[in-house]
Amino acid sequence: MRSDHGGHGPMDADGAWLEMTLEDLGVSGGLTLAPVGSRVGVLVLVLGVLGVALATWSGSARGGGAEPVDRARDRRPIDVLFVEERTRWEFRYAKNALLRDGGTRLQVFLLDGSSGAQEHSRGAPGLGALPAPTELGRYRVIVLGDVTPSAIERAGVSPVAFASALAEFVARGGGLAVLAGESMPVLWRGSPLVEVLPVADVGDFAAPAGAAGLHLDMTAAGARHPVLRLGESGACDPEPWRRLTISRALTAVARPGAEILLRSATVPERLALVAGAWGRGHVLLVGTDDLWRVRSSSPELHARFYRSLVAWLAK
């Protein structure tokens, strides 16, 4: 049997799905398919032998756009590593949203150490050091903030090894969110980390000269994307995002196959949210550190956004 659909089936040491027979599993009994959850247009099945769940598949029962993220498919907490160099508003609100989320098992590592003990979810140990490159595989999602290579080096980890490990993490199926800033990803140009991002030709991270602010525009791809379908029924409401004014955003060009979800309405090369894939994993680039300002018009929207971001990256 084989799962090529991103399910949590048996894998070999290289991260490839194993082909197995019932005899390989030491089972001579029957095979059953049992529904374990559903929603409009989607059926979720568990392949089980003698009542033991072995792998999970999900598929759309009919054509259509992207489906909203449904955590009912997998009840396990999502192990998340959040690395940031210093506290900034985007980090504070995103981190707090994930700490309050019962479906996320979060470990935070703040590189400047200004907050004392590193924060973490209940049930997850606090980190005493930045995880080594060989340890990143224990997470399903990594959120990387405005981190400089020099800060990674001061934490006792080679920036080259760290960037390479992140690229391998995504290639093997991990989810990566990169929160842009003055240093990220500009100071990582030429590294394997930049190669996995859904953008190329990375420019500055600043406010355009003479601009009082940047108003956002949600693209058609953004309105369809699961990360932004945050309504109770899985609908997407673009208005809170369109009312949002941000001070700065990253200048970049989306790579072929990537989807621009949010961008400046007046300076379209300023990208606020871009989604893409690399190998077996997904990558989201948050191109501004001002999304937290949407809380002024929709207090819970920012928290729901980050929870949805993690859920989609963990798929």
- Any low-confidence stretches, pLDDT <50, length ≥5? 1-29, 31-67
> What's the pLDDT, averaged over the residues?
81
Q: Please tally the helical runs, counting DSSP H or I stretches of 4 or more residues.
A: 7
What assembly state would you assign to the polypeptide chains in this entry? single chain
Shape: globular
Radius of gyration: 20 Å
User: Beta-strand percentage?
Assistant: 25-35%
Class per helix and strand makeup? alpha+beta
The helicity comes to 10-25%
Main sheet: strands, sense, barrel: 11 strands, mixed
Please characterize this protein's 3D structure:
Helix content is 18%, strand content 27%. 37% of the residues are buried. The two termini are 20 Å apart. It is globular. α1 crosses α7. By secondary structure, it is an alpha+beta fold. It is built from seven helices and 16 strands.
In a nutshell, what does this entry contain?
The protein has helices spanning 89-99, 149-154, 159-171, 192-196, 220-224, 239-242, 301-313; strands at 31-39, 42-49, 52-60, 78-84, 104-110, 141-144, 175-179, 199-200, 205-206, 214-218, 245-246, 249-251, 253-254, 259-264, 270-278, 281-286. With 315 residues, it is α+β, with helices and mostly antiparallel strands. Strands 4, 5, 6, 7, 9, 10, 11, 12, 14, 15 and 16 form an 11-stranded mixed β-sheet that branches. It has a 3-stranded antiparallel β-sheet with strand order 1-2-3, with no helix packed on it. A two-stranded antiparallel ribbon has the order 8-13.
Chain-wise SSE layout:
Blueprint: E1 31-39, E2 42-49, E3 52-60, E4 78-84, H1 89-99, E5 104-110, E6 141-144, H2 149-154, H3 159-171, E7 175-179, H4 192-196, E8 199-200, E9 205-206, E10 214-218, H5 220-224, H6 239-242, E11 245-246, E12 249-251, E13 253-254, E14 259-264, E15 270-278, E16 281-286, H7 301-313
Parallel strand pairs: 4-5, 4-6, 6-7, 7-16
Antiparallel strand pairs: 1-2, 2-3, 8-13, 9-12, 10-11, 10-14, 12-15, 14-15, 15-16
Helix pairs in contact: 1-7
